[in-house]
Design goal:
Chain lengths: 294, 523
């Protein structure tokens, strides 16, 4: 009997709930642990990034207006879908290899498990962060005064190379649980888990445009991110000093909120990245006054 | 916070009795012939002829770092700060050089560990002392503020200075309660803060910057605005009086170059800036790169605005007109959150315009030190010119200018009459750009959806106002406005407990309230 030939998956971009190829037709070779090319992924262009930002902007109205309860449920569904793809996600991580560093050597399966748990963690924050981060204010006068949180808008998430799935999820989950929409720039050395995660999003009731995923060259894409005036915030980790500077200079373009975290210092498996203070940079505080006397 | 003035009468005898009234809008009711008597605040405030920097608890002469040809070095070390209401020199203040900034940052750095290590309750007590001393010296501070900035004494006395004291009181109390402000986290000071503040609320902005920074255990180098340094220097005297440890608060005066040196200084851990969006963007650029240790400066920006004030047909019209007035003519409109775009529902537009003209006719424009003055002097000649440029641009682009006060302006000093425009298109310069003066654009809308989309159609997002007596409408509109402060059936209210700051290009970070602590702690 002839051996069955494997059906190989073509990994594509994930924009506006669909899986397009890069409009540029370019691809990015991904090397395995042994240095051999194991896959070709789309190499997103400036145009793809712009399309993704437009999709995220379109998705923002619906997602930010969804009830917090609903957003939490959708994210929990996301975790359920990841659970079903544990094997594929772990294989995607280990195909490129490079053992995850950390205090103890963690396996790809550990990374997937931690990523799933992190999605659940932030799913739970969706209907709580507003209570922890907002308040009412005892002003000296007959006014009812309160501060509420609202999503900042379209956020670009730049995943680190180390822990390409857990890093991505840890940066993305706080952004979307609070009602923002996201454009993810995947790890450059191993973008495959991000591409698989796009399939998770496509099957977990996440409305189109809420999560968009680009694979490509960071150098090329971050320049566009920095200069783009319709990106409201950036959440990144593990960048070079040059890329950090580039993104922070982008603040001058349209007063983006740019948070760049040190990739190496963070214990991605631990509690470092589990707090409402990871949500806080991507919400805006609105203070409302109203007279409280007749 | 009050609106500029109770219903007064339109008289200007206190200002320039002999100059004839000019530019009366045709068809307007003639002003009455009787006027208020002058009521100047007459208490004398001592001002030294010359001030140096306040560095490490010492009054420190500036170090000369620039000597241009043909000018004696002496000329470059100090510059004049003037009273914009009469163009007289009040005092000379030091021009901070890079060396001065260096010395101030070094002093702040040296003082920081000890300040942070104080028992928090003791740190609180120092800040409480500042608050008390501000209250005790309130009258003097208010007069000095008015002399240096041009704002009406009524406002500096009743708004600015009381808010300054309240701000220090509020944050003093946080110093030993920080763990409760950040549940689950361990707040630590960020270190040395470089703070650059504007000229529109000179002392209040100093308080907004200093109080939370000090409460959280940071030390500060503050750079007051070039045109309004005197009250910040008086605050330095207060720090001295109350025995604040040297180096905890350092004040370096100077122009934009001094500010640029401060924000770019490698010894500064956190930069806080309030001012124009243009300068804010430059600061963002200059603080972008990480230092040698890979650390980046923290940054908060409180920038410009073009805030919308929306009047629905079901609003209480008279109250809304008061809100329009306090929204745009408070502090001569030199307010980042000024309600400079008023959107009136079409059905009530003629009524609102008529009432607005009537109300404006009673605004008293003139000498800021007069207790009856509603609209004082513009802060500087440059700002006055900028306002005039916009008034001209509005006219040239086809909007209709209204000048209901027709006030006679003093011959000396920098003054502008309060104006408003109708027939303004959203594309007009006056409807898009921040004027920072007493110039209002009145536009109309038909549906709530249109009001929201036009209000949000701005790169800014600092504040907004909504006027309607329908509760659910208030909340719906307040939710949909992309602005950091939404005043419902009120405008331009401020309180130390109330966070203030913008969406979008109006900046990031909040000042006031528990949220105001966040910029000054690392978690």
């Amino acid at each position: 009997m002839a051996t069955r030939l494997d059906v190989l998956k073509t990994y594509k971009l994930f924009i506006d709930g669909a899986f397009p190829r890069s409009e540029s037709g370019r691809s990015l070779a991904v090397n395995g642990a042994d240095g051999a090319v194991i896959a070709h992924l789309c190499k997103a262009s400036r145009k793809d990034l712009r399309d993704a930002v437009e999709a995220a902007r379109r998705g923002l109205d619906k997602w930010s207006a969804a009830t917090a309860y609903n957003r939490g449920q959708v994210m929990y569904r996301m975790a359920e879908m990841m659970e079903g793809k544990r094997r594929e996600l772990a294989d995607a991580i280990s195909a490129v290899g490079g053992k995850p560093a950390g205090k103890r050597a963690r396996t790809a399966a550990d990374e997937v498990a931690a990523a799933i748990d992190r999605v659940i963690y932030f799913a739970g924050w969706a209907d709580k962060h507003a209570q922890v981060l907002g308040c009412n204010n005892p002003v000296s006068g007959p006014y009812y005064n309160f501060t509420i949180v609202e999503p900042t808008g379209v956020v670009v998430v730049v995943a680190p190379d180390r822990l390409p799935l857990l890093g991505l999820i840890s940066l993305l989950a706080p952004v979307i649980c609070s009602g923002n929409t996201a454009v993810v720039v995947a790890s450059q050395t191993n973008p495959i888990p991000a591409a698989v995660f796009g399939e998770v999003c496509a099957t977990s009731d996440v409305p189109a445009g809420v999560v968009n995923i680009l694979t490509g060259e960071r150098d090329e894409l971050l320049k566009v991110v920095a200069g783009h005036r319709d990106i409201d915030a950036v959440h990144a980790a593990g960048l070079s000093a040059e890329h950090t500077t580039l993104l922070r200079e982008g603040v001058a373009e349209n007063i983006k909120r740019v948070t760049v975290r040190g990739g190496e210092q963070i214990d991605w498996f631990g509690d470092d990245c589990q707090s409402p203070y990871w949500i806080e940079p991507f919400v805006e505080f609105k203070t409302v006054w109203h007279p409280a006397s007749v | 916070m009050t609106s500029p003035g109770p219903n007064g009468h339109n008289g200007h005898a206190a200002v320039a009795p002999s100059v004839p009234r000019v530019s009366q809008t045709p068809g307007e009711p003639k002003p009455a012939s009787w006027d208020y008597a002058p009521a100047p605040e007459t208490v004398k405030v001592s001002i030294k002829p010359r001030y140096d920097h306040f560095i490490n608890g010492e009054w420190t002469a500036p170090k000369v770092s620039r000597v241009s040809k043909g000018k004696a070095a002496e000329d470059l070390t100090h510059f004049a700060t003037i009273n914009p209401a009469n163009e007289t020199t009040l005092a000379e203040v030091a021009q901070g050089s890079a060396a001065d900034v260096d010395a101030a940052v070094a002093a702040a750095r040296a003082a920081q560990p000890k300040w942070a290590a104080l028992p928090p309750t003791e740190r609180a007590k120092y800040i409480f002392r500042i608050a008390r001393r501000v209250q005790e010296r309130a009258r003097e501070l208010a007069i000095l503020e008015t002399l240096d900035s041009g704002k009406p004494i009524k406002e500096s006395r009743d708004v600015d200075v009381p808010l300054v004291a309240a701000h220090f009181f509020y944050y003093a109390g946080w110093a030993d309660k920080l763990a409760f402000a950040f549940p689950g986290a361990d707040p630590k000071p960020v270190g040395v803060c470089g703070q650059v503040i504007p000229w529109n609320f000179p002392l209040l902005m100093a308080a907004w910057k200093l109080a939370p920074a000090l409460a959280c255990g940071n030390t500060v180098v503050l750079k007051p605005a070039e045109t309004t340094p005197l009250t910040a220097l008086r605050l330095a005297e207060i720090c001295e009086e109350i025995g604040l440890p040297p180096g905890v608060v350092n004040i370096v005066t100077g122009d934009g170059r001094t500010g640029a040196a401060l924000v770019a200084h490698s010894g500064v851990d956190k930069v806080a800036f309030t001012g124009s969006t243009e300068v804010g963007k430059r600061i963002a650029k200059s603080t972008a790169a990480p230092n040698a240790a890979g650390r980046t400066k923290r940054l908060t920006l409180e920038l410009g605005g073009k805030s919308a004030n929306i009047i629905f047909e079901d609003a209480s019209i008279d109250q809304a007109v008061e809100g329009i007035i306090s929204g745009i003519y408070f502090n001569q409109g030199e307010v980042c959150c000024a309600g400079s775009r008023v959107f009136v529902q079409e059905s009530i537009l003629p009524q609102v315009v008529r009432k607005l003209k009537h109300r404006m006719a009673s605004l008293r424009v003139g000498d800021p030190i007069d207790k009856n003055t509603d609209v004082g002097a513009i802060n500087s000649a440059a700002q006055r010119d900028k306002v005039n440029y916009y008034v001209q641009a509005g006219t040239e682009e086809g909007a209709t200018l209204h000048d209901p006060t027709g006030a006679v302006l003093p011959q000396k000093g920098y003054f502008c009459r309060p104006y408003f425009f109708t027939d303004v298109q959203p594309s007009h310069i006056i409807a898009r750009e921040e004027i920072f003066g007493p110039v209002l654009s009145v536009m109309s809308f038909r549906t709530p959806e249109e009001a929201i989309s036009r209000a949000n159609n701005s790169p800014y997002g600092l504040a907004a106002g909504v006027w309607t007596d329908k509760g659910s409408k208030i909340f719906d509109i307040a939710r949909k406005l992309r602005a950091g402060v939404v005043w419902c059936n009120t405008y331009n209210k401020f309180d130390p407990a109330s966070p203030f700051g913008g969406y979008k290009e109006s900046g990031f970070g909040r000042e006031g309230g528990v949220h105001g602590l966040r910029a000054y702690v690392s978690l």
